[in-house]
Amino acid sequence: MDFGFLGGKKNKDPDQNRRKKKTIAITQNVINGLISYAKMHHPFEGILILGGERKKTEIFINNLVIPPFSVHGPFYSGFPINELPFDLNYLGTAHSHPSGSSQPSLEDLNHFYGIISIIICHPYEEEDIHAYDSQGREVLFERRN
Ligand SMILES: [Zn+2]
Q1: Can you tell me whether residue 49 is helix, strand or coil?
Q2: CATH number of the domain at 20-84+97-144, please?
Q3: What is the dihedral of CA 39, 103, 60, 56, to 10 degrees?
Q4: How far apart are CA 60 and CA 14, in angstroms?
Q5: pTM for the predicted model, two decimal places
Q6: Could you tell me the distance, in angstroms and rounded to a whole number, from the CA of residue 131 to the centre of ligand 1?
Q7: Distance in Å, CA 24 to ligand 1 centroid
Q8: 108 alpha carbon – ligand 1 mean position (Å)
Q9: Which residues form the JAB domain (predicted)?
C-alpha cells in the first residue's frame, strides 16, 4: 500500500522502489498445513515457524516447523525466541487467532521474529490468512505449487 500521498511527497524514482520490494510466495502445502494446524488447536492459538528461502527479490515460504518450546493457551501462544537455534532458513512465524481478528496484536508486534508474520484467523479458511511485515503492515503474497 502506498501512503506517499500523506506526506505530499512525490516519489521521484518509482522503479527503484519496485526493485527493492520483495515478492512473498507461499506454497499450497504450507497454506494447507497452516489451516489444519490452526483448526487442530482451536479454540487455542497455535504457532509455527515459517521456513524457506530469502532470495534477492523474493521471500519463498515452503516449510513449516513446529517450535520446540511452544506453549498453547487461550489468549497467547509463544515460545522463547532466544532459545531458537539460529537458522537462516527461518523466515518468521505463523500463528492462529481463534478470536477471529486478522490484525496483529501489540504483543505480536513486540514479539516479532524474523521478517514476516502470518496470522490465520478463525474460521481458518484460505482467505483468513494474512501476512505482515515487522511494522505490522499487511503484505500481499502469492500462492505457489
Ligand atoms: Zn496474535
Answers
A1: strand
A2: 3.40.140.10
A3: -170
A4: 24
A5: 0.79
A6: 12
A7: 20
A8: 5
A9: 29-129
Rounded CA separation 44/73 (Å): 6
pLDDT at 87: 76
CA of 104 to the centre of ligand 1 (A): 5
Between 139 and 14, residue with greater pLDDT = 139
Q: Domain limits of the chain?
A: 20-84+97-144
66/84 Cα distance (integer angstroms): 11
Cα–Cα distance, 16 to 51 (Å, whole number): 28
Alpha helices by DSSP H, listed for the chain, are 4-7, 14-20, 28-41, 106-110
Determine the distance separating the centroid of ligand 1 and the alpha carbon of 6, expressed in angstroms.
28
pLDDT of 74 above 70 = no
At residue 44, what is the residue type?
Answer: F
